[in-house]
Amino acid sequence: MRTEVLIAGFGGQGVLLAGNLLSYAAIDEGKNVSYFPAYGVEKRGGSATCTVVIADGTVGSPVLGQPAVLVVLNQASLERFGAKVRPGGLLIVNSSLVDITELNRSDITIIPVPMNDIATDLGDLRMVNMVAVGAYVALTGAVQMESLSTALSQALPERNHRFIPANVKAIETGAQVAKSKKEA
């Protein structure tokens, strides 16, 4: 098995933490992982992306020219990467912030998830990344949901461990909403 994802958004949305969490969960499951973060010079508001490749066997380069799965958290990321999704691939969109009407892709599956709205309803907009991870895992099965819960203690600094239950709730909610959108 091999899965790959490009997660893209702006600084402050937790893109790199989302990729890091996926990586820890996959490692905990005994899988091989390549994690490649990239971000602009700004701390908040600049471009932030990461690729995560998870495989049972050898993992090569983390560079994805045509990702099988793209998770976009903001409009600029859709404009930059939307056309690069491999035909037959999956695009998971933060429909709270992203308008897909101009994309014109009928060769991929597009799942809109109102990630910002969900995170806000759960009490903290900063959990948009956890909603995204939950949606991604529910739609792809890249790792087990339980592995994400366990990996949070590795991905989050110890001072933030008190937020693990809230993050687990955000992951679960993102997963539920994504599944319901796929079935609709």
| CATH uppermost class | Alpha Beta
Mean pLDDT over the full residue set: 93
Helix content: 25-40%
CATH architecture grouping: 3-Layer(aba) Sandwich
**Total DSSP helices:** 6
Report the β-strand fraction as a percent range: 15-25%
Question: How many distinct folded domains?
Answer: 1
Unreliable spans: none
**H and E string:** EHEEEHEEHHHH
**Radius of gyration of CA atoms, rounded to a whole number:** 15 Å
CATH topology: Pyruvate-ferredoxin Oxidoreductase, domain 3
CATH homology-level superfamily: Pyruvate-ferredoxin oxidoreductase, PFOR, domain III
Pfam family, one: POR
Domain Pyruvate/ketoisovalerate oxidoreductase catalytic: 11-176
GO molecular function: oxidoreductase activity, acting on the aldehyde or oxo group of donors, iron-sulfur protein as acceptor
InterPro entries: 2-oxoglutarate_synth_KorC, PorC_KorC, Pyrv/ketoisovalerate_OxRed_cat, Pyrv_flavodox_OxRed_cen
Describe the structure.
The chain has 184 residues and is α/β, with parallel strands linked by helices. 39% of the residues lie in helices and 22% in strands. The protein has a single domain, classed as 3-Layer(aba) Sandwich (Pyruvate-ferredoxin Oxidoreductase, domain 3). Helix 1 crosses helix 4 (128-140). The chain starts with a strand and ends with a helix. One of its GO terms (molecular function) is oxidoreductase activity, acting on the aldehyde or oxo group of donors, iron-sulfur protein as acceptor. This is 2-oxoacid:ferredoxin oxidoreductase subunit gamma. Keywords: Oxidoreductase.
